[in-house]
Specification:
Layout: H1 2-26, H2 28-43, H3 46-59, H4 68-78
Helix pairs in contact: 1-2
Length: about 100
């Protein structure tokens, strides 16, 4: 049974790896979104949350509470899309 569990884990990893490569080629925006989601999950873990909690205590000593919801709001603000600079018709100036 242990062998089957290891095989299952290995195959799931391989399928995710192949899927990731295909998505990277066919839909780069989706790939970046998924990569950012994975990074966000790492940021929400305990050790990183502790660092943010300490930074929040220094920034706002009156309200040092740091919840997971506040962390998600912070990440959403950090991941806000930035518009691509557009060029005028002559292509020499960026607006």
């Amino acid at each position: 049974m242990e062998f089957l569990n290891k095989l299952k884990t290995y195959l799931e990893t391989r399928v995710e790896n192949i899927r990731s490569h295909i998505v990277k080629i066919t839909d780069p925006d989706l790939f970046l979104e998924e990569a950012l989601t994975k990074i966000d999950d790492v940021l929400l873990k305990e050790k990183v949350s502790e660092v943010f909690q300490n930074a929040l205590k220094e920034a706002d000593p009156d309200n040092p509470q740091f919840t997971e919801e506040q962390m998600k709001q912070l990440i959403e603000r950090m991941n806000a899309p930035v518009p691509i600079p557009r060029r005028n018709q002559e292509g020499d100036r960026v607006r």
